[in-house]
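Chapter review: from sequence to fold.
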Amino acid sequence: MNFRYDGTWRPGPSIVIEDNVYIGSNSEFNICDHINIGKDVLIASGCKFIDHNHGYHLTNQKIRLQPPDIGAIKIEDDVWLGVNVVVLKGVTIGCGAIVAAGSVVTTSIPSMEIWGGIPAKKISNRNDENLNNHMRLSGTF
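The token string follows.
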């Protein structure tokens, strides 16, 4: 697991990880503002959390010298992130949401939804009917 802080020091935590959180190997937290991980979250290997972009709007100044565009990341309780998910600045992932492996999350995800892709888009809702249909099709019901 890698933590990288890209901001100016200020009092208080820049990352909060609540209870019963699993973080897989080679996950990276690249922090300029703040990242909050809720309770009972599953983070598979290789996930990346980046709460900022490089500034680039000033054409008379080198990109690397421009102030960053920042936005805190919040992962609510009971979220499952598949392997190699990238979560970008300003995103909130709602309680009970699932993000498919390899997805790039650029916008907030509501609670109890399943998202995937680049950029991530809604695939389905998490509800008993969807679960029952999946179990019937897979022969486990």
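Two observations follow directly from the output. Residues 14 and 34 are 5 Å apart (CA to CA). The first helix runs from residue 128 to 138.
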